[in-house]
Specification:
The complex is a heterotrimer of chains A (307), B (350) and C (316). Chain A has 307 residues and is an all-alpha fold. Chain A has 2 domains: 73 residues, no CATH class; 206 residues, MetI-like (MetI-like fold), CATH 1.10.3720. The radius of gyration of chain A is 24 Å and the shape is flat. Chain B is of the alpha/beta class and 350 residues long. Chain B folds into 2 domains: 221 residues, P-loop containing nucleotide triphosphate hydrolases (Rossmann fold), CATH 3.40.50; 88 residues, no CATH class. Chain B is 32% helix and 23% strand. Chain B contains 13 helices and 12 strands. In chain B, the strands form 2 sheets. Chain B has an 8-stranded mixed beta sheet with strand order 6-7-8-3-9-10-12-11, with helices on both faces. A 4-stranded antiparallel beta sheet of chain B has the order 2-1-4-5, with helices on one face. In chain B, a hairpin with a 2-residue loop joins strand 9 and strand 10. In chain B, helix 5 crosses helix 6, helix 5 runs parallel beside helix 8 and helix 8 packs parallel to helix 9. The two termini of chain B are 23 Å apart. By secondary structure, chain C is an all-alpha fold. Helix content of chain C is 71%, strand content 0%. In chain C, helix 5 runs parallel beside helix 8 and helix 5 packs parallel to helix 13. Chain C starts with a helix and ends in a 6-residue tail after the last helix. Classes of the chains: A mainly alpha (307), B alpha/beta (350), C mainly alpha (316). Chains in contact: A-B, A-C, B-C. The interface between A and C is large, with 45 and 43 residues.
Chain lengths: 307, 350, 316
């Protein structure tokens, strides 16, 4: 088990470095001058430009720039934006919003998705199963952008149940964006659960469990659901990592000041340091939760543990 | 010739004592997207205490389906039991409540399957899965169930049982896994054990060990054994009586010695000719021509007639014994022998 | 088997309603298996209502992209008059007017072409990359596989929208249809690669590939003749659904302000312009959203149905 985790951990390092270098290269090496863009319509004085380029290491070759960046990163310094604000401050300010949104979305997708999937999988081809099938197809097909506007218009403007913009005290203002954000994964979780349950219901060991004269409840819960939920739990776990990276569209449409909104603003303003810093954090979350899921998988399925 | 089959009074397909399990005219259908599949079409047999009955047949002959119907573990739908009675200790299981049926599974009748790897749940230890029998049926505590599981693993000769009780199915070899299945099945001293192709997935040497284990357990406990197989060698070694199935019907029944010594049905005869015999070196093996019948449209008359070398059709056939039109009933051909063929006497040579 | 026996058998098979192949001359098992996969799949598809709904929607979308004039009832999308700005739908103008006073139906209908081109172009690039990288990775294994798989992992760590956002914002690809398609493909090829890779690995170790190798077939021949045909089914399912995903992604990028730009006509631009008027003219968001959703749904439904039809495990 320890070796398994260590091996996984080692494999993640090149991915983390590779992804952060990829974004670094895209931000700093692709044509288009961020410093000039900073000035907007009024061109900056050449001296100012030169000073800024020096400050942000823009005159070094790309590889050196990246190594310098990594060196700073190792000391916990993610750099500053062009206005001198530390990127770390931006993250510290924005992350709580994204965490709240993620918690709401994960709860929604896990609870509703698993319950719907289990009920549909147990009674395959029933009316309820067909409802789940059709509604998940529908939800998967609605782009999150469109879904966000539907939610705003129906629940916010017409019914007036939820605020449609910004953050308020407490969790209530996160419900609507959380639902929108969760919808795609929710549909996927429901389908994954349904397929997995239906497949496991036909498994030989479920037949054995029934041949053993176990009560129906035990057969379903212990021998069908326990096995069926392994892929579901791992999907939901990995999804935490994805959602923590910020939901650009949801946070933009609902005007939530989270990580996703921050990165969107930074990309538009070509704030290289902010983009690279946040994306690196985001990749870290993604990789970390995938690692957690790998370990979780090994805990849940003994066949993996001993490989 | 095995000693076991000699101990049974010859001339009787049924055991001497009152049968523990009696299957009467069992019929099972499957409703599928492409029509009705008639998997079991009127099967009757009995199993007495200490008796070993072999159900012999190709895949698709209905032997496994009938066993699952007895266990009450068929998926219904798509399966449907359209007629018959399954009498166990004087009670018809088919009319019993689901809860009563469940209570029979384990202490009354239990079953082991062909593929022990897929038949054991991969995420629970073998000790837990064996112990579940005691916990579910007797309310034994988790701790005591584990102790009993170790005892059972000892009994089915799994080495170092106490150390292996917490291991998972995938950590065992094929033969050991089947022993785990057997331990689970005999945990509650069932009166009937149904073994569905218990050795098919195993190596030849391991096959013999597992069959020996089953025979020893049967001798110790006196349980009746229903051995479902397509392996004539296994039948010959361990069974007392044999029922040969084809297209969901029993086509021949008798003691193993009688049936194997002199088949009364052309299908059995074909089966015998298709296996290599050590004594008959040099002879050509004769496969049975054609394919097993399609169960959604079983041939009219005798279901075996399209493949039967002895069939009589048209003007050759006497009235009422036309192989493609008249269904041959399972009838007493000579004392102790039943066969479903219009021309069994000719096949037997009597 | 004698001729007589064989003739009997054939007759019996016909009577019994089975065709075992025993009575007919042998055929190449590989192509036979493929043929029956596709013909079984088509039988299954034909009975699937969701497939037909998807196919009809998909066809409508295709026609809209090819002949927008027919659907806009001959109205020019750029024939605008500010006096009609934001008017609600009427029997004359089914979708009403946008803020500039252009006929909205004509505008929405003309948006289909860019979506189609971007969706198709991006999926073709994705498939090319997926097949080439996946086949190399799976077929050669070893360090090539390790390297390419890690590269795929790296790209996986960056979400599609984010990656495309950064590339497009840097501006070096431009902001046209091709630029958007390439940006999407650059961050969307990994799943296709993994699909092809796993299929290649599975088939590579199969008996019939070993047999072909034993008979002296070259690597290239084995890859093209035996391995890739097996990957077609899962890749086709993936590609169908992905077209829908890519069309939605294009609209999203454009909405976020890094995709297509005016004067190009795009559903993303329409939704972006409309969202500011959500309170007073909700139809401006509604109609492009509706058509966009129906388009994505067409591909998702077709892909889902295709997957069910091609996956033997799904059949009862």
């Amino acid at each position: 088990m320890g070796r398994y985790v260590a091996r996984r951990l080692l494999l993640t390092i090149p991915v983390l470095l590779g992804a952060s270098f990829l974004i670094f290269a895209m931000v700093y090496a692709l044509p288009g001058d961020p410093i000039r863009a900073l000035g907007g319509d009024r061109p900056l004085a050449p001296a100012v430009v030169a000073q800024l380029r020096q400050e942000f290491n823009l005159n070094d070759p790309l590889g050196i720039q990246y190594l310098k960046y990594l060196g700073d990163l190792a000391q916990g310094d993610l750099g500053t934006d062009f206005r001198g604000r530390p990127v770390l401050d931006t993250i510290a300010q924005r992350l709580p919003v994204t965490i709240k949104l993620t918690v709401v979305a994960i709860l929604i997708e896990a609870i509703i998705g698993i319950v719907a999937g289990v009920l549909a999988g147990i009674r395959r081809n029933s009316f309820f199963d067909n409802v789940v099938l059709v509604s998940t197809t529908l939800v998967v097909s609605i782009p999150i952008l469109v879904l966000a506007f539907i939610a705003q218009f129906v629940f916010g403007l017409k019914l007036g149940l939820f605020p449609i913009s910004g953050v308020q005290e407490g969790w209530y203002s996160f419900l609507l964006p959380g639902l929108v954000l969760a919808s795609g994964s929710l549909a996927y979780v429901a389908r994954l659960t349904r397929t997995s349950v239906a497949e496991n219901m036909r498994a030989d060991y479920v037949r054995t469990a029934r041949a053993k004269g176990l009560p129906n409840r035990t057969v379903v819960v212990r021998h069908t659901l326990r096995n069926s939920l392994i892929p579901v739990v791992t999907f939901v776990g990995a999804d935490i990592g994805t959602l923590l990276g910020g939901a650009i569209v949801t946070e933009s449409v609902f005007n939530l000041p989270g990580i996703g909104r921050a990165i969107f603003d930074a990309v538009r303003a070509q704030e290289g340091a902010v983009v690279v810093g946040i994306v690196t954090l985001m990749v870290f979350f993604f990789i970390f939760f995938n690692l957690v899921v790998d370990v979780l998988y090994a805990v849940l399925d003994p066949r993996i543990r001993y490989e | 010739m095995s000693t076991a089959s000699m101990s049974v009074p010859s001339g009787s397909a049924r055991g001497a004592s009152a049968p523990v399990l009696e299957v009467q005219d069992l019929r099972v259908q499957f409703r599928t997207g492409s029509g009705l599949v008639n998997a079991v079409n009127g099967v009757s047999y009995t199993v007495s205490e200490g008796e070993t009955v072999a159900i012999l047949g190709e895949s698709g002959s209905g032997k496994s389906v009938s066993a699952q119907a007895i266990m009450g573990i068929l998926d219904m739908p798509p399966a449907e039991i359209t007629s018959g009675r399954i009498m166990f200790e004087g009670r018809d299981l088919l009319t019993a409540s689901a809860e009563e049926q469940r209570k029979v599974r384990g202490p009354g009748i239990s079953m082991i399957f062909q593929d022990a790897l897929s038949s054991l749940n991969p995420v629970y230890s073998v000790g837990f899965q064996i112990g579940e029998m005691f916990r579910a049926h007797r309310g034994t505590s988790r701790k005591d169930a584990k102790k009993l599981a170790i005892e059972l693993m000892d009994r089915v000769r799994i080495p170092a049982a106490a150390q292996r009780v917490d291991d998972y199915p995938h950590q065992f070899s094929g033969g050991m896994r089947q022993r785990v299945m057997i331990a689970m099945a005999i945990a509650l001293d069932p009166r009937i054990l149904i073994a569905d192709e218990p050795t098919t997935a195993l190596d030849v040497t391991v096959q013999a060990q597992v069959m020996d284990l089953l025979k020893d357990l049967q001798r110790d406990t006196g349980m009746g054994l229903v051995l479902i197989t397509h392996d004539l060698g296994v039948v010959n070694e361990v069974a007392d009586n044999v029922a040969v199935m084809y297209a969901g019907r029993i086509v021949e029944r008798g003691t193993v010695d009688d049936v194997f010594g002199n088949p009364a049905h052309p299908y059995t005869e074909g089966l015998m000719a298709s296996i290599p015999m050590l004594e008959a070196k040099g002879g050509r093996l004769q496969p049975i021509g054609g394919q097993p019948p399609n169960l959604s449209s079983i041939p009219s008359g005798c279901p075996f007639h399209p493949r039967c070398p002895k069939r009589r059709l048209g003007a050759d056939a006497p009235p009422g014994r036309h192989c493609a039109e008249d269904v041959p009933p399972l009838r007493l051909v000579v004392p102790g022998r039943e066969a479903a063929c219009h021309y069994s006497e000719e096949v037997l040579g009597v | 088997m004698s001729d007589q026996q064989q003739a009997d058998l054939r007759k019996d098979e016909v009577e019994a309603g089975t065709t075992t192949g025993l009575a007919s001359p042998s055929v190449d098992p590989a192509s036979d298996r493929q043929n029956s996969l596709w013909s079984d799949a088509w039988k299954q598809l034909r009975r699937n209502v969701l497939f037909w709904i998807g196919a009809v929607l998909g066809l409508l979308f295709l026609l809209m992209a090819l002949f927008p004039g027919v659907f806009s009832r001959g109205v020019d999308p750029r024939d605008c008059s500010l006096s009609r700005s934001g008017q609600a739908p009427s029997s004359e103008h089914w979708f009403g007017f946008d803020q500039q006073g252009c006929d909205y139906l004509a505008n929405v209908v003309h948006g289909a072409r860019n979506s189609l081109i971007i969706g198709l172009l991006a999926v073709v690039v994705i498939l090319l990359m997926g097949v080439v990288v996946g086949a190399l990775s799976g077929f050669f294994g070893g360090w090539i596989d390790s390297l390419l798989s890690r590269v795929a992992d790296i790209f996986y760590a960056l979400p599609l929208i984010l990656g495309a956002l950064v590339v497009l914002r840097s501006g070096f690809l431009g902001r046209g249809v091709v630029a958007v398609a390439i940006a999407l493909a650059a961050f969307g090829w990994m799943t296709a690669m993994r699909l092809v890779r796993s299929q290649v690995i599975a088939v590579k170790s199969s008996d019939y590939v070993a047999a072909a190798r034993a008979m002296g077939a070259s690597n290239g021949r084995i890859l093209v003749r035996h391995i890739l045909p097996n990957a077609v089914a899962p890749v086709l399912v993936y590609a169908t659904i992905t077209i829908g995903v890519l069309i939605a992604a294009e609209a999203t990028l454009t909405f976020l302000g890094v995709g297509l730009q005016r004067p190009a006509i795009s559903w993303g631009l329409q939704i972006d312009a409309g969202q500011r008027l959500l309170r007073i003219a909700p139809h401006l968001v509604l109609f492009p959203s509706l058509i966009l959703t129906m388009t994505v749904m067409a591909f998702v439904m077709m892909g889902d149905a295709l997957r069910d039809a091609l996956d033997p495990r799904q059949r009862s």
